[in-house]
Amino acid sequence: xxxxxxxxxxxxxxxxxxxxxxxxxxxxxxxxxxxxxxxxxxxxxxxxxxxxxxxxxxxxxxxxxxxxxxxxxxxxxxxxxxxxxxxxxxxxxxxxxxxxxxxxxxxxxxxxxxxxx
Length: 117
Hints:
Blueprint: H1 2-9, H2 14-21, H3 25-37, E1 41-45, E2 53-57, H4 59-80, H5 85-116
Antiparallel strand pairs: 1-2
Helix pairs in contact: 2-3
């Protein structure tokens, strides 16, 4: 998930990644370490603050991320082939409604957290 996020929204700082996943910086830093060791990410220090860096997907990481995305598309296409076109439309509609409900609940939680501060 981190590689996918970086590939489509990066480069990002550790703090930005932490916020995107709702985790703290130390947790994201621990998750980045194996990706760093495997050469799947690159780090570039910020010009304005050399202690901070931008994390981006390396060429090797991009290849892996693309292979994973292709496999997921292939899998879900095969799964959806078991549904009729009517069922697929119903599923898409329900998933859209579910996404809206999740987004609404996330806003409620964010507001609750702001009030608690």
